[in-house]
Specification:
Layout lengths: L3 E7 L5 H15 L5 E7 L5 E4 L11 H7 L6 E4 L10 H9 L8 H8 L1 H10 L7 E4 L5 H8 L3 E5 L9 E3 L2 H11 L6 E5 L4 E8 L5 E2 L3 E5 L6 H5 L5 E4 L6 H17 L5 E8 L5 E7 L9 H8 L4 H21 L11
Parallel strand pairs: 1-2, 1-4
Antiparallel strand pairs: 2-3, 5-8, 6-7, 6-8, 9-10, 9-11, 9-13, 11-12, 13-14
Length: about 350
């Protein structure tokens, strides 16, 4: 039996445009499933819109109006926001309060996956290798950071994705500019030692147990895989699908991707990004709990490579979201009066 699936897209973050591109691909996939897509856009001012396949925003309504007029039209939500106010657990918590099942990771995993500092600390605690890093809430001293991490360095906002606000720096002048740029997007920044190696991505799909796709590799044209290269330029990088890795390294990537997925209490979906150095040592760069679904995004492409079409993938993600909602509703909210007797 088909469900009314609310594809929620747009949002307030700097990644608004990418969310819209992802939503178009999910909408197209849903047309090949038993489900009925309901397109729900949130504009840059936070107003809600019911839209059609033109994905244009007309006269918007407020959040309170959306709760009474739009959200009752859906059975399950498929949020495809990227960045703050949608991927960071806030919107997932909103849906939890309303009792609406949703695809993708839950509140905790969404929040942790968005926070590069907390994410990396948890991975380190589980014995999963990550690049050396430092986190700051005010501009740091270049000499101090260089002494601890060396050069080159990557500077990033803690809670931003899509390569927004990221700089690769080799000099003090670049460092100062990179710090200023990153602080435009977040009140905390993370500075990481560069890992010289190949960039590998692996898609993970929830379930009992979770499963991992074949890994893929991308080689950006420039030194940093920019926002434009990632989403707007089909020639922005060379993709190798599957990644040309040995069988043992492929298996290690898949195993470590699932371990990271589980350590961070993730369900639904995630893309796990790796560095592989010359000695075939693996480092996890980050986990992305709402990966891109654009026509050039690797999350769905890697599942297609692994034998799961995008419509089937979207259908499975909806199924997992409904299953999670049913499990939560089966839990008791009342204390057991005999627990301490």
């Amino acid at each position: 039996m088909g469900l009314r699936v609310g594809v929620l897209f747009g949002g307030l973050s700097a990644e608004h445009e990418i969310s819209c591109l992802s939503a178009k691909n999910i909408y197209k996939a849903l047309l090949e499933t038993p489900h009925t897509p309901v397109l729900i856009g949130i504009d840059r001012q936070g107003l809600w819109h019911l839209t059609d396949d033109s994905f244009t925003f007309g006269q918007g309504i407020s959040l309170s109006e959306a709760v009474s007029k739009i959200l009752p039209k859906i059975d399950v939500a498929f949020p495809i926001f990227h960045g703050p106010y949608g991927e960071d657990g806030s919107f997932q918590g909103f849906l939890e309060i309303l009792g609406i099942p949703y695809a993708g990771a839950g509140v905790l995993a969404s929040a942790v996956g968005m926070d590069k500092d907390v994410m990396k600390r948890l991975l380190q605690n589980a014995g999963i290798p990550v690049a050396d890093f430092l986190t700051f809430s005010r501009p740091p001293n270049f000499a101090d950071v260089k002494a601890k991490l060396g050069l080159p360095l990557f500077i990033k906002p803690v809670t931003m994705g899509s390569s927004i606000g990221i700089s690769r720096v080799t000099t003090e002048e670049e460092f100062i500019r990179g710090v200023e740029d990153a602080f435009q997007y977040d009140s905390r920044i993370i500075i990481e030692r560069e890992v010289k190696g190949r960039e590998i991505e692996c898609s993970v799909l929830g379930g009992s147990p979770p499963t991992a796709s074949l890994p893929g590799e991308f080689v950006p044209k420039g030194g940093v895989y920019t926002y434009e290269m990632k989403y707007l330029d089909p020639e922005g990088a060379a993709f190798y699908l599957p990644a040309p890795l040995s069988a043992s390294t492929t298996a290690a990537v898949q195993s470590l991707a699932i371990k990271a997925f589980e350590v961070l209490a993730t369900d639904g979906m995630a893309r796990v990004d790796f560095f592989v150095d010359k000695g075939e040592k693996l480092y996890i760069n980050e986990i992305n709990t709402i990966p891109g679904f654009t026509p050039i995004s690797l999350y769905p492409k890697l599942w297609e490579l692994s034998g799961l079409s995008t419509p089937k993938l979207v259908e499975r993600l909806i199924e997992l979201g409904v299953e999670r909602s049913l499990r939560k509703k089966s839990l008791s909210l009342e204390p057991n009066p005999h627990a301490y007797n």
